[in-house]
Amino acid sequence: MKILLAYSSKTKNTKKVAESIYEQIKDQAEVDLLDIKKQRKKIEKEYDFYILGAWTDKTNANKNMQRFVDQQEIHGKDVALFLTCGVPREHYHADDSINNYIAFMEERNNKIHETFVCQGKVDPKVMIVFKILAWHDPNFIHKVTPDLVDMVKESKKHPNLKDLEDAQICFKNLLEHKITHATV
Ligand SMILES: Cc1cc2nc3c(=O)[nH]c(=O)nc-3n(C[C@H](O)[C@H](O)[C@H](O)COP(=O)(O)O)c2cc1C
Which is the closest atom of ligand 1 to the Cα of 57? Predict the structure, then answer.
């Protein structure tokens, strides 16, 4: 089975998760690992399965990943998704984000076989930008509350070893038990 494991990463959290998954599954299938910012042209190769990882922006996969999906015509395919986000996995915002990503992919007739989410450290510059935006626009959604400050502090520890191991277990199981019968 040919798998494209593609990711979008600005500050390397998602890259780390993608590389861990790759190390785990590279012997289970023919896997190509791709940083989407290095891919300008349409990929010629045909894949049986797509694993697409992104950092979260505006409660969804970031725009570069959304653009990649459409440019590469990942439509009507078998896929698995993963996200890194600024909040802990248990936070409702993490669920909203992965659900929006799932909806985006399903609107393009993709079949989602697995999802994975973990926290990733938030670039401290983001808080400065949020403060400025909240100051300009009182309705700006990311208010810099004490809760948000605590979450950003906690996010510095992620993705940690446990997050990376969880990702590996999740995708190992996917390949062993779920997609062998679902695809080719
Ligand atoms: C401009 C910007 C917007 C962000 N918006 C969100 C958001 O809406 N929700 C969220 O959970 N995290 C948000 N984050 C946090 C990132 O998704 C998170 O830190 C992620 O792990 C970054 O991944 P990367 O290191 O692969 O780029 C945002 C980060 C940036 C830089």
Answer: 5
